[in-house]
Description:
single chain; mainly alpha
Amino acid sequence: MFWLIDEGHQDPANPPQSHTTAINRSADVGFISPEFAARLDDLWTDNRAQTYYQDGMATQARATTMLALANRIHKQVAHLAGQHHECIC
């Protein structure tokens, strides 16, 4: 999301109202491929949304997978933004 705003692809006064909208917007502007966007969309639907809405059970395996994905995405975003030195995570 920060990249979309910083690069002028998203009005900060009107952010996407859902994770899937942000994912698809990122694909629309070429930040990620449509194939990767579809995979993220599926991951969101199959894991986070089910757990959040209690349609599925949170498991150690699911938590480990989501953490690994978050770490990989974070590294990629910091790399693409060229702001590794600004990260305070």
